[in-house]
UniProtKB/TrEMBL annotation:
Domain HTH araC/xylS-type intervals: 431-529
4-aspartylphosphate: residues carrying this PTM: D52
DNA-binding listed as a keyword: yes
Upper lineage: Bacteria, Bacillati, Bacillota, Bacilli, Bacillales
GO molecular function: DNA-binding transcription factor activity; sequence-specific DNA binding
Every Response regulatory domain range: 2-117
GO biological process: phosphorelay signal transduction system
Statement: the UniProt record of this protein carries the keyword DNA-binding: yes
Protein name, per record: DNA-binding response regulator
Annotated keywords: DNA-binding, Phosphoprotein, Transcription, Transcription regulation
Any one Pfam family match given in the protein's UniProt record, by short name: Response_reg
Family annotation (InterPro entries): CdaR_GGDEF, CheY-like_superfamily, Homeodomain-like_sf, HTH_AraC, Sig_transdc_resp-reg_receiver
Amino acid sequence: MRILIAEDEKLTRESMERELRSFGYEIIEKAADGVEALAAIESFRPDVVLADIRMPRMDGLRLLQEARKASTSPIFVIVSSYDSFDYAKTALEEGVFAYLLKPVGKSDLRSCLTRVESRIHREAEETNRLTAVDHKAKKYMQLAKKQMLQQWFEEEKTDESELRAQFKAMDIVLPYDRFVVLTVSIDEFEKIAIGKSAADLQLYKYCIENMTLEMIAELGVEILSFEGEHEQGFLVNMPFDPLLEEKMAQTLEKIIEMVSQYLKFTVTVGVGEAVGSLTHIHKSYGQAKQAAMTRMKQGGNRMYVYRNMESKITVAAIVMDFETEQKLLFSMEKCEKENAKDILSGFYRQANDQSENFMKLNFNVAVTLMKLMNRLGMNPEPFLGSELKVYRKLNGCTNLEQLLLTLDGMLDVCFEEIRKNDKIWNNSVMAKAMDYIIHHYNEDISLQSIADHISMSPAYLSKQFKKTYNQNFIEFLIQYRIDKARELLKSGNYTANEVSSLVGIKDEKHFFRTFKKITGVTPGTYKRGKG
């Protein structure tokens, strides 16, 4: 490999030359400034230029720009004592291969040159094999591969031979029988995105993607990238080798460190378990995302390996029970925004103490929020987006406080829409009726007793109940009592007869008939977990 050193400090220039020769590189040329370096590029035709970013007459970035106009365009590695994100960002935008900080460690320099050689080798092979048309086709093929991978991860494929055939059709070679999915997600992305253009954000993702692809590929494995929900996803095809797995872990730690050092933000890496079949890669992807969600409790800027955490991850997430859901609904009906926020905050803080399965938890909350807005007679999609969008936005949070702030913002939007809806805003009387039911459902209540409580005629209350909730009083009360009975039976602490009394149905035979009519099974069968 032919190397040109462009450095204005003589001692640094000579020191770098000695190190390069100690690595076995013999074809080396030196230049004391950018103008000399540009002339040497034309005459010496180096494969790689190690250039200082600040030099007399012409700096390193200007040298790169001028070199592109020449008939040959070597790989550029910037060597600088300026630890500045602006310099690094500009260098990356100009197509610099790497940005090394002085003093450059021997191992960092060797590693960088090894990657340069690997890139030169790959480019030489591609140049020999591809025509200009092939290059253009490759660009579209890469995009198609990403989209195909993304689709496969969203769907659960069960036909191994079909998947293999599709990979072959896309010219994807997978020589090994082990597959691991990695995710790399930017911590506090919403905060980082403030004031940044779409091009800046795309550049961040591009840097992360390229860095990961190149550094993992150097381990001798096959790696493909795809766009995940809030992360860059990578499918790694590798042989069984415990040492290789350890090297990959070390490489991922290095990627985390480099992102923090050069891009000035942090990322979290999630690693799923290795699977032996393409039909199980979605499982590894889910594990990688679930492992990465541990940053909600333990913080970002780290790597989380699902295999190492499996015993710590609670499989069953806390699910919002019927009573909590009803309390949230009543708060929304009565436009008590702060109370609704307290309910969700308390729910999440309780879940945070008992479970690490935030993905299922966020899905449950997203579904519940959309359902409640629909029950209030409003379509939430125009102002919240789809159920999937809400879920993904919650999953994009890095910690619990950020998640609660995100939920607060969603509730602010919901309550603003509720206030615009006169029917809901003026329905406080019906909200009081529902509130009375939830606190007295296990007593001998009737439409008359509720009407007396809220100073309304039973006939008018009955009419408004059906009009507002599309359910008459008796239907709602029975359904509510049976839902509470389900919870009590599932707890395993009560007999079916005890549950009947606890939910306000004194006639046990009537309770058994009603429970089976609504649920399809008897209370005893449901209690045994077969309902």
